[in-house]
Design brief:
It contains 14 helices and no strands. The chain has 304 residues and is an all-alpha fold. It is a multi-pass membrane protein.
Length: 304
């Protein structure tokens, strides 16, 4: 299997797992009365303990290698930025957006990250966006407009808070997609994910203090938490972040469209979330945007 095919399968598989996890998160918020400030700290901490625990028994020396300040202090700094500003805040903002809207809206707003990656690449390469890249930016803006207003200039179909959380979430995707390249060249992706989750879980427990909320999940809620942890954290991040180095962040962003599609289908069929023609048009605009942004890789230019 070529790296391109393997990378595509890994990123699509990871994205689909995120979609399943997002739909489960919507179920927990709407049917089990959970709160994102309770769910996310527990989700991150459990996932981090699972992955770090695996490496503790598999290779204890490798587990602590990224924290060897004397060997390379940049690794410690990179891991802190990647784990906290990237992965952890992405997780919190993603589930906050779901709680404020739907899983489909949250995932499609998160998928605006390729436009931000494009802008970062243009700055790094000191060039202006090409014509098709400008078209992709306009399509992204149009897609967001259709999703959030349903064509009305006087009202929003989603709350301003959900829109803001989703857009900032897209910024954090840029961080965890582009920042860890040097770390990934030295350490296994699941190990980096484990530390990122553990850092975020510890930090959010200190910030939100979920043990003071008095919430006790039902048996179904516990199963939902396990799905969110095992499918949405451990499996999804490991698959996606293993695929990105093989095909590059731009092409990976195209295949990650499996996430909003999965989330929208499941939330509509299983949870009864509305999905209108305006939503379909918005999804279509953002999908075409992703196709346009994959053109450099498809035309022979190296994926960045």
């Amino acid at each position: 299997m070529s790296d391109r095919v393997k990378g595509a399968c890994l990123t699509m598989g990871g994205a689909a797992c995120w979609g399943i996890s997002g739909c489960m998160g919507q179920y927990l918020f709407t049917r089990e009365n959970m709160d994102s400030t309770w769910l996310v700290p527990i989700r991150l901490l459990l996932a981090g303990l699972l992955l770090c625990g695996y490496y503790f028994f598999k290779d204890r020396k490798q587990l602590f290698a990224p924290w060897n300040w004397k060997a390379d202090p940049r690794n410690t700094i990179d891991l802190l930025v990647y784990g906290l500003a990237g992965v952890s805040f992405c997780q919190f903002l993603y589930f906050l957006t779901i709680q404020l809207s739907t899983a489909g809206i949250a995932t499609i707003l998160q998928d605006l990250s390729p436009v931000l990656i494009l802008l970062v690449l243009c700055l790094q390469q000191r060039r202006t966006p090409r014509l098709f890249e400008l078209c992709s930016i306009l399509l992204a803006l149009l897609g967001v407009f259709l999703l959030t207003t349903h064509g009305s200039l006087t009202s929003l179909a989603v709350s301003p808070a959900a829109l803001a959380a989703g857009l900032v979430c897209a910024c954090t995707v840029v961080i965890y997609t582009m920042w860890p390249k040097r770390l990934q060249a030295q350490y296994p992706t699941p190990l980096l994910q484990g530390w990122a989750f553990l850092l975020g879980g510890a930090a959010f427990h200190l910030i939100f203090r979920p043990w003071t909320m008095g919430y006790v999940p039902s048996a179904v809620g516990v199963i939902g938490i396990l799905v969110v942890v095992l499918v949405g954290n451990v499996t999804a991040f490991s698959l996606y972040m293993s695929g990105v180095p093989l095909i590059g962040p731009q092409r990976a962003s195209l295949y990650s469209f499996a996430e909003p599609v999965t989330a929208a289908i499941l939330s509509t069929l299983l949870l009864g979330s509305p999905f209108t023609l305006w939503d379909a048009l918005g999804f279509g605009c953002i999908f075409v945007m992703l196709v346009l942004l994959s053109l450099p890789a498809r035309s022979g230019s190296p994926a960045k």
